[in-house]
Write a structure and sequence with these properties.
34% helix; 6 strands; 6-stranded parallel beta sheet; alpha/beta
């Protein structure tokens, strides 16, 4: 089964941390001819992932709140011109639930949760695991 991978994470993740936690895994996924990616349109992991994928694959679905995405990469002479954008979600929770429903696998890393706070990223990781989604190996 070819993976449909929901990639998500914290908005405040640094570029260096993105490269460490996500880039190698995404490169492995891109080696699979028909891997599909599901991303949202928030800052940080979402926007960095779109930039990595825009010239690499047409197999991307971007989910966003409202009528227009907050961010979309340049479509001129890139494969992003073939991406599917699905909007109209009323909340992050509604959008994230759709992404989890759509995926078979997920790639995520949380840097913001601690004993006093659970981030949206950690909540999504827990929801993916509850739905038996497969965590893509990040090594």
């Amino acid at each position: 089964m070819l993976p449909k991978v929901y990639i998500f994470g914290n908005g405040n993740l640094s570029f260096n941390d993105y490269m460490f936690y996500y880039k190698n895994a995404i490169d492995k996924l891109l080696e699979m001819d028909n891997a599909h990616f599901v991303v949202c349109d928030f800052k940080g992991v979402d926007t960095l992932t779109m930039e990595v994928l825009k010239c690499a694959t047409p197999n991307v679905t971007v989910l966003h709140i409202g009528e227009k995405p907050r961010y979309a990469p340049d479509k001129y002479k890139t494969k992003a011109s073939q991406w599917k954008f699905i909007g109209g979600f009323q909340s992050d929770a509604e959008r994230d639930a759709m992404a989890i429903n759509m995926c078979t696998h997920f790639l995520a890393h949380d840097i913001n949760s601690n004993e006093n706070r659970k981030s949206g990223t950690l909540t999504n990781i827990e929801n993916c695991l509850k739905e038996n989604k497969i965590r893509f190996n990040q090594e």
